[in-house]
Design a protein that fits this description.
The chain is an alpha+beta fold. It has a domain of about 140 residues. Helix content is about 50%, strand content about 15%. The protein has a four-stranded antiparallel beta sheet, with helices on both faces. Strands 1-4 form a two-stranded antiparallel ribbon. Helix 8 packs antiparallel against helix 9 and helix 8 runs parallel beside helix 10. The chain is globular and about 50 Å long.
Length: about 350
């Protein structure tokens, strides 16, 4: 479907320029035009919904984000076989959605449901993906005993002996251990696991430093107190974005972290720069011999959500802490040729 391809490419141009509302408008119109073609072109229609969801999330539009993810998953389920690679990839999208909007309880229920139903249906790959998602979620929730038990269970499954899944489980175990390890221990872990293919794999991703407002509100929330710093009806936070470029050296450490471009006043991005600088990746074989490693560009958008401030009925965008991150490495996609399915290289897809 050429309409889907062209719209996604045009929306990507707007997205890269920080024009989230323009990109969202393009994709919303494309979804409305093409939903009637879902039966004959389910992948193309699902790709529109996926791109729409990505842009809506970065814009802070959680309602349309959830709606687009549901439509993407439903389109693939309705018109493609359960064992189709597109369906397998999208099987955990609903759980990911709940995680993105900080509803961990519903995310865990969703991942568990996907895993259970997939095992019953003999869809081992989908079940393994959902199980791995559950482990990462349980780890984020601090349920350490369940993490250890679930990881051991997945490692006993026959599918875990296949090279791809065996490596994925090894990396997952390492990422969990790295969160509690010091620098020397992490060095030993990375040396033991070695290179994981032609591209570096993220092993350690530190948490972001909270702003004063976020820290105060978090403390108040722990004691069930009223939000310490509240929003009024006249408050409004504009979209804030930055493209951060950095090197991943052959030893897995990051270097030369900098903001390449972004919205005005990038002071809000300081915690993001610090976080990228502290990341650790798996080592990479430097085929060029120049010792440079790999260069990455990631889009960081300040997380936000639309809500009503105190004393107002008007929904406005408010910053809620943290960042949405998308890998933009590589040039912008050109307008695609007339093909059956959209080009999967589009970052927003």
């Amino acid at each position: 479907m050429r309409d889907a391809q062209a719209t996604i490419a045009l929306a990507e141009v707007d997205f890269r320029d920080g024009a989230y509302l323009a990109a969202k408008k393009l994709l919303a119109a494309a979804a409305a035009r093409n939903k009637r073609h879902a039966a004959e072109a389910p992948r193309a229609v699902a790709a529109i919904y996926e791109a729409y969801a990505t842009v809506a999330l970065h814009d802070g539009d959680r309602n349309n984000y959830q709606r687009a993810v549901r439509n993407q998953v439903q389109t693939l389920r309705n018109y493609l076989p359960a064992d189709d690679v597109a369906n397998i990839s999208a099987s955990t999208a609903l759980g990911d959605m709940w995680m993105k909007i900080d509803n961990y309880r519903q995310a865990e229920i969703t991942f568990r449901g996907v895993e259970t139903s997939s095992l019953t249906a003999g869809q081992d790959r989908t079940a393994m993906l959902a199980g791995m998602k559950r482990i990462w979620l349980l780890n984020a929730m601090g349920r350490n005993q369940e993490v250890a038990a679930k990881l051991a269970e997945l490692e006993r499954r026959p599918l875990a002996q296949q090279p791809g899944f065996r490596t994925a489980l090894q990396v997952l175990r390492l990422r969990i251990a790295a969160r509690k390890a010091d620098g020397k221990e992490i060095d030993k872990m990375l040396a033991a696991i070695g290179p994981q293919g032609p591209e570096p794999v993220l092993i350690l991703s530190p948490t972001y430093e909270k702003s004063v407002t976020e820290a105060v509100n978090a403390i108040a929330g722990k004691f069930d107190l009223t939000t310490a710093v509240q929003r009024t009806g006249s408050d409004f936070d504009p979209t804030a974005w930055a493209d951060i470029g950095f090197w991943i050296r052959p030893d897995g450490q990051t270097d030369d972290v900098e903001i390449l471009r972004g919205s005005t006043n990038a002071q809000w991005a300081a915690p993001a720069l610090a976080q990228v600088a502290a990341r650790r990746y798996s080592s990479v074989v430097d085929e060029s011999g120049a010792g440079q490693g790999r260069y990455r560009v990631e889009r960081f958008t300040r997380r936000s959500a639309y809500s009503q401030g105190n004393g107002s009925l008007i929904r406005r965008r408010y910053a809620i802490g943290g960042y949405e991150v998308l890998d933009l490495t590589g040039p912008p996609a050109a307008l695609p040729k007339d093909e059956a399915a959209p080009d999967a290289s589009h970052p927003i897809q």
